[in-house]
């Protein structure tokens, strides 16, 4: 992949505009989880050590092109200072005189934080005029916001076209992990795709069957595949109108030499609630008045074999309704198998997706995975095989 890193560019004496994702959760003006801020530290420290003046560009929430005081990045300044252990100089606009004054006031070793880029309507429109005003503030551009890379915005794609540009350390780590999982992976590769619906993951399934050796389909979307094969699933979540699409995916997989694994046994219940009375039945034997809420132990045993035979695993989507006990059992068990194989050095494991990250954390498996992407939409679009404009512009 053709993108530059900080190592490829001279930084001494330069003003580096650094696009970061510090869109942190906040309650009553206080940051409740500083994980995203912690993650930009390696890039900020590296740039300062190389003699650059660091100017952070970021969006916060969705002000939709207007100044919304509650969505000011000024609220994040204190948390940023605490996490970085450095003085942060805040600029009340990301362009023009306030931005220039903040940059001029900062000493080498301080960090400049400029106001929410999305206060300007040109940000999300990728307006060249806004990109030019941003570019006028610095000498080089470092993009460390992989999670915003699937959108071509002025502070991501537009700016990268105007200044010498490179990926920050966080972006670099994410791109390398993803490249190792799907770009040039060690084979065989298994992909696990679960979650609620086939319709939200069509592009994903279509791309994966051409790239991986084994595709495990779980969660609600597996029900649609069962229905497509003439198997009744009672009251389960299933998109019956997607049956032809499911058959197409099965056909595409066969042609590409990808083996699809569907649940062989399932856990069914009559109610969608924690602790609901449940039973385990063959995947072909869901009672008419019940719904499938998880995969069963035979399915987990089969997945254990597949994981054990593979060298690379990529995972998006839980295998069952993991938010309610005990329907998190298959997801937890499979996650544990993947984590143990990874710990033993037998598997490269990469996972992403909002609910997937939550499920792997709940399973206590996340820390042992090779890489967990918190990038949400950007991770999914990358898994779908799409070009991410924010990354492409770093070439
Ligand atoms: P991600 O956010 O990681 O991309 P999804 O949003 O696609 O994952 O899927 C997660 C959702 O799928 C969860 O809310 C989970 O309860 C739901 N789900 C999984 N299996 C089932 C099932 N058998 N029946 C109903 N919902 C399910
Ligand atoms: Mg989700």
Structural notes for this entry:
37% of the residues lie in helices and 17% in strands. The chain has 2 domains: 6-170, Rossmann fold (3-Layer(aba) Sandwich), CATH 3.40.50.1260; 185-383, Rossmann fold (3-Layer(aba) Sandwich). The longest helix is centred in the middle third of the chain and has 15 residues, at 169-183. The protein has helices at 35-39, 41-49, 77-84, 96-105, 121-124, 128-135, 154-160, 169-183, 202-208, 219-228, 243-256, 297-309, 329-343, 354-362, 377-383, 389-392, and strands at residues 15-19, 26-27, 30-31, 53-57, 88-91, 111-114, 140-143, 165-167, 189-193, 214-217, 259-261, 265-269, 278-282, 291-295, 312-316, 348-352, 371-373. With 395 residues, it is α/β, with parallel strands linked by helices. It has a 6-stranded parallel beta sheet, sandwiched between helices. It has a 6-stranded parallel beta sheet with strand order 11-10-9-15-16-17, with helices on both faces. It contains 16 helices and 17 strands. Adenosine-5'-diphosphate is lined by residues 194-196, 219-220, 237, 292-293, 316-318, 320-323, 353-356.
